[in-house]
Amino acid sequence: MRISIDKAIQLIKERDVVAAPTETVYGLAASIEHPEAIQKIFTLKNRPTNNPLITHLANIDQVKAFVDHLPKDFHRLAEAFWPGALTLVIPVLEDAVPDIIRANLRSAAFRVPSHPLVQKLITGVGPIVMPSANLSGKPSSTIAEHVEHDFGEDFPILDGGSCETGIESTVLIADGEVWKVGRLGGISPKQIEKVLGYWPEMPSTQVIENPLCPGQMYRHYAPNARLHFDTYIPEYCPVVIGFSERDYPPNKTLKVLGSIKDPQSVARRLYHTFRKLDEEGVTDAWIDMDFPVNDLWASIRERIVKAASK
């Protein structure tokens, strides 16, 4: 159900949940002042309660209400990438951020999104939590129709069209004097290095039972279809996911992610392609992983590996 910005503001003030667009993916939005609405998000998504949420702000200044001090280089990062696809995890005043948002951790995650509709939403209701608008572990929503598929045609959606980035924000975690990557995303480590003067430590490949930020738990972003990326294409895979410039076996159904020269187009189509597999009842698909390992490609690779994990 498509709703206006005024209706979205009204519903959130009434302790309800709405779906809203960001430049990365669609999210399920609730006010940080309404714990019952936040609990509803966990229930809707079937999301583990030890998986913390990101608080979305209208501007840098709003973060001051949640901390007594800010980590080194916080302002440099925020000024460089906010509004935008970067989330910063920092120590907070525990009384200022509800336990349910930070999963009882001493830190919390913050982002200033750039999409004009969600900016209007935050201006109207104050800071909001907004995890991705999908069932937990499944591909995120990048268009309003994806949200409808997961939560029904009657679910209130603030329709902002197709998401520009198509994958979630990069998450940086403050660790003493340095910053570490908790989740790869729309901002590359190379971009971050230019601001910090050093390459941030990359996230662990091990399963984290008590994550510090979203994206660290279990299998993520995954379709029902089994994803394969062996060096050869298995005979039992009827579908190939690849690139527009390359040739693949003619007896396979091809799903084109985009151009090998344009990682932005690939990121925008990744979750849409995963969802198409399930719509068409595909059980097994092979993905061409012969692409660069740097910049946005690293985030794309991470999403595919998480989606293919057992």
Question: What does this protein look like?
Answer:
By secondary structure, the chain is of the alpha/beta class. It is built from nine helices and twelve strands. The strands form two sheets. An eight-stranded mixed beta sheet has the order 1-2-6-3-5-4-7-8, sandwiched between helices. The protein has a four-stranded parallel beta sheet with strand order 9-12-10-11. A hairpin with a 2-residue loop joins β7 (170-175) and β8. α1 runs parallel beside α5 (116-125). The longest helix has 17 residues, at 263-279.
Estimated helix fraction: 25-40%
Point out poorly predicted stretches: none
Query: Count of helices?
Result: 9
Number of strand elements: 12
Radius of gyration: 19 Å
* Overall form: globular
Structural class by SSE content: alpha/beta
Order of helices and strands: HEEHEHEHEHEHEEHEEEHEH
pLDDT averaged residue by residue = 94
Distance between the termini: 34 Å
User: Oligomerization state of this entry?
Assistant: single chain
Strand order of the largest sheet: 1-2-6-3-5-4-7-8
Largest sheet: 8 strands, mixed
Strand content: 15-25%
SSE topology:
Elements: H1 5-13, E1 18-20, E2 27-31, H2 35-45, E3 54-56, H3 74-81, E4 86-91, H4 99-102, E5 107-111, H5 116-125, E6 128-129, H6 144-151, E7 170-175, E8 178-183, H7 189-196, E9 226-228, E10 239-243, E11 253-258, H8 263-279, E12 284-287, H9 295-308
Parallel strand pairs: 3-5, 4-7, 9-12, 10-11, 10-12
Antiparallel strand pairs: 1-2, 2-6, 3-6, 4-5, 7-8
Features:
single chain, 310 residues, alpha/beta, 8-stranded mixed beta sheet, 4-stranded parallel beta sheet, 9 helices, 12 strands, globular
